[in-house]
Amino acid sequence: MTTTDSGKNWLTPLLDTWRTRRAWILEQQIAIARVAAPTGNESERAAILQQDWFACGHLVTRDCVGNVIARVDPTGTPTRPDRRPLVCLAHLDTVFDDREPLAVRQEGARTYCPGIGDNGRGLAAMSVLARVVLQPEVRTRLQRPIELVLTVGEEGEGNLRGARQWFDDAAARDAMPVAAVAIDGPGDRTIVHHAVGSRRWRIVFTGAGGHSWANASTPNPVHAAGACIAAIARLAEASRPSGVVAVTRMNGGEHLTGVPTHAWIDIDLRSLEPARLQTMSDEVTRIVRRAALDASQHHPALALRYSITTLGDRPAGMIDDRHPLVLAAWSATRAVGREPQSASASTDANVPLARGIPAIAIGAGGSGSAAHTASEWYDDTDSNVGLERAIRLIVALGTTERLFS
Ligand SMILES: [Zn+2]
User: Fold this and answer.
1) For the purposes of burial, counting CB atoms within 10 Å of the CB of 189, is it exposed (0-12), middle (13-18) or buried (19 or more)?
2) Which domains does the chain carry?
3) How does pLDDT run across 337-376, given as a tens digit for each residue?
4) Burial of 367 from C-beta contacts in 10 A (0-12 / 13-18 / 19+)
């Protein structure tokens, strides 16, 4: 990377200002976390943040799936204008289904609330970044546009819907970004540059059913599902560590004394390598077909049927730890006095990584635990460190003259 401003001192007063506004940032975070935003139902939270960005001077748009988008163009004269934007994403949704306002409890430095860290912290940081990028000292130095995007549908069966839509639209406009940074949860040292890919399937076996004595030779869907589970367990053993597969839910049958008419299992398959994900998927498909055939061999006229339905599909991808984007995050982390750590995860950054766009995910300061549970907590101690890291990184990526050249 070539840096436009060799001295970074111009950023210091701005960082100092935000350091003194920790209480306000935490207030924003709690207020955001209190507004329920289950995947697929993010609109109330989205409207509040849209209003916040509008009030601080942005033109804010919503796309067809409900992502909230603000774009800042350079107001100075970029040395080598880059029309490709830098995109910064944070997800709006939580894994909690409840539409009721979420309860907040304070215990010492800890704030307990489902979603307070994931992604209340990331969204509060986006409120700060929305203000930072409008500051004249930043905007006049920008070498490329910055787009801030609050995404819907990142969690669970949302399947990264918001991020996919934003990148589909960018591809359609021929305006793919130069790089993407997802701001997700607390933290001030990890840099996610390996995107864990996953496929979640429901496998259903169906048959004629019947009486367990009178129709004993009728192919049994529960037997097929059982054989399938045993084979997947062997595949799981053989696949680690480059891939993992687990049967995570199962159900089937109707009566104690009847050959069942149906059985289903859900599987969760994950890997960092797209090719591995594909070979494991192919193997599971073979296992399912074989299980149905074996269970039907004595009564082919009543052969079991099976179906495989995709419940989730997150693409894998990665950039290595010498990639300039990772190095930029590395140096922002060192600049705030933390030792950087490489990590792998499944975030909005999966989408750009799978499409060949350099992308990482970082935390937004503070610490926390128990994400995706009702007892999630967030600790604001030293939260300015991680927030400052995020600001330094986004500003560096926005104002650097030649990124990745
Ligand atoms: Zn998250």
Assistant:
1) middle
2) 2-196+316-402 (3.40.630.10), 204-314 (3.30.70.360)
3) 999 999 999 999 999 999 999 999 999 999 999 998 888 9
4) buried
Instruction: Report CA(118)–ligand 1 centroid distance (Å).
Output: 5
- β-bridge mates for residue 68, sequence order: 62, 150
**R_g of the chain computed on alpha carbons:** 24
Pairing of strands 305-314, 197-206: antiparallel
301-323 per-position pLDDT tens digit: 999 999 999 999 999 999 999 99
| Phi, psi angle pair for 132, to nearest 5° | -60, -45
**CA end-to-end span of the chain:** 6
Q: At what angle do helices 120-132 and 12-19 cross, to 10 degrees?
A: 140
Strand-pairing partners, residue 33, are: none
Residues with C-beta atoms within 5 A of ion ligand 1: 118-119, 184
| pLDDT tens digits for range 187-209 | 999 999 999 999 999 999 999 99
CA distance 101 to 89: 24
Task: Decide: helix, strand or coil at residue 243.
Answer: strand
CA of 184 to the centre of ligand 1 (A): 5
Cα of 248 vs centre of ligand 1, distance in Å, is 21
